[in-house]
């Protein structure tokens, strides 16, 4: 299986490195100092599950230089999805499957504007990993899981082949027969975690322990569940309560990438997280006061102070 990884950051760099180290033909599409470091010193993953170094990774600066592949893993930031989708059309037209592990629920809707619907697989990733320095990916904790599947629920050959590749690479993986629901399940938790940690500027521990901020976290997630159910996703009515219990099981120091981006002055994925929930609510006539307020609070920081 020939694989291209579009975006070699925390997600793409980690899983791509694991696949490359296992002997699969992986080409990374990266840029800037990270690309230079990969070409000079290789790609290194530092992980509690064992470090990995890909000595001489195949790395290019543009997807057009990848050549023919069987699968493209998309791991760019959400604001780059339109551009990425347009650049992937030649590969999709040649038969490549496209599997996005980006955040949120907008990603595949954007991909289908530019790519054949049959080329798109649904996917969700669970990992805490960042570029700690150019050419180096730092993995926090032991969670590293990919869940993916066909949107029609079939067990296709391409899904099974990628599952076997993940198993060989030591990546925890699972094939889902209802990938749309799983994407929304993660979205409920992600919006709750990102919205509260970024607006409160604290990790999940203090937020879940304080009665008022705990109630805010629950309300934020309830709004996401209401939107999902209105859009036809089969989420249980009390799924936000389930995710609140899940929040009690994660490390107290855990925070969101959006919180990290806020603190570093980076651009944030706000318009596709709490902002996306607020926009869905306006379209559907469903009140989303908590997510709308979070969006308003963070609006002045969404573009990043470095812009």
TrEMBL record:
Domain Ketopantoate reductase C-terminal: 178-300
EC number: 1.1.1.169
One Pfam assignment: ApbA_C
Involved pathway(s): Cofactor biosynthesis; (R)-pantothenate biosynthesis; (R)-pantoate from 3-methyl-2-oxobutanoate: step 2/2
Reactions this protein catalyses: (R)-pantoate + NADP(+) = 2-dehydropantoate + NADPH + H(+)
GO terms, molecular function: 2-dehydropantoate 2-reductase activity
Keywords associated with the record: NADP, Oxidoreductase, Pantothenate biosynthesis
Protein's UniProt keywords contain NADP: yes
Ketopantoate reductase N-terminal domain residues: 3-152
PANTHER family for the chain: 2-DEHYDROPANTOATE 2-REDUCTASE, PROBABLE 2-DEHYDROPANTOATE 2-REDUCTASE
Family stated for the protein in its record: Belongs to the ketopantoate reductase family.
Entry function: Catalyzes the NADPH-dependent reduction of ketopantoate into pantoic acid.
Protein name as it appears in the record: 2-dehydropantoate 2-reductase
Taxonomic lineage of the native organism: Bacteria, Pseudomonadati, Pseudomonadota, Betaproteobacteria, Burkholderiales
